[in-house]
Amino acid sequence: MSRRDFAVGLAVGGATGLLADSLGLHSALSYWGPKAPVVAALALAFALLWPTRLRPGLAVVAAGLGALWLAVAVTPLTAWMAQGLVRRDVLRPADAV
């Protein structure tokens, strides 16, 4: 394992961990603890696995999360999907609770 492969894997893994955190993927696993150790563990796992034959798979995972993040962050896709979620009730006076 070369230092360069380790460094590239660490960088790709760190970016992947931050993208997963930004997308809120921790909720899919019902994990509500601190997220920094998860990002660091993912970065270390990518660094250790990057020099192996798993590199193309890891690159696909990283690129897929990057594409998903871009679709959510910079396209109107999210606004289009949330249209039916906005409440449009008529405001009227009500008793206090």
Radius of gyration: 20 Å
| Main sheet characteristics | none
Which structural class should the secondary elements be placed in? mainly alpha
- The count of helical stretches stands at 4
Structure description:
Helix 1 (3-23) packs antiparallel against helix 2 (36-49) and helix 1 packs parallel to helix 3. This protein has 97 residues and is mainly α. The model has no long low-confidence stretch (mean pLDDT 90). The protein has 4 helices and no strands.
What labels would you give this structure?
single chain, mainly alpha, 97 residues
Please give the structural blueprint:
Blueprint: H1 3-23, H2 36-49, H3 55-74, H4 77-81
Helix pairs in contact: 1-2, 1-3
How would you briefly describe this protein structure?
With 97 residues, the chain is mainly alpha-helical. The protein contains 4 helices and no strands. The longest helix is centred in the N-terminal third of the chain and has 21 residues, at 3-23.
